[in-house]
Specification:
Rossmann fold; DUF2325 domain-containing protein; 50% helix; alpha/beta
């Protein structure tokens, strides 16, 4: 089963519900940097792919996610908008591309 770290957005319950229907595990962070970056590191370490919803993040949050993903050698995708279906599709595509 694929695990995606989704960073950005505000509808965690809806995101997880949608992902469960798709057979995907979601680790979610709303992207607010008031939460310590240790949480980013922990969830990115557990994820197969990092998905950032760039229209739902500030620049600092996106840069932090990118830096940690690079340090941990995790693939990262950037999605415009706040829609989760495209974000999950892009995350899964990256997962399958890297699984080969």
């Amino acid at each position: 089963m694929c695990t995606l770290a989704v960073i950005g957005g505000s509808h965690e319950t809806s995101i997880k519900k949608y992902a469960k229907k798709q057979g995907i595990d979601i680790l979610f962070h709303d992207g607010k940097m008031s939460q310590r970056t240790a949480k980013y590191r922990s969830m990115i370490r557990k994820a197969d792919v990092v998905v950032t919803l760039i229209d739902a993040l500030n620049h600092n949050s996106m840069e932090t996610a990118r830096t940690i993903a690079k340090e941990l050698n995790k693939p990262i995708v950037y999605t415009r908008g706040k829609g989760i279906s495209m974000a999950i599709y892009m995350g899964l595509s990256e997962y399958h591309k890297n699984k080969k």
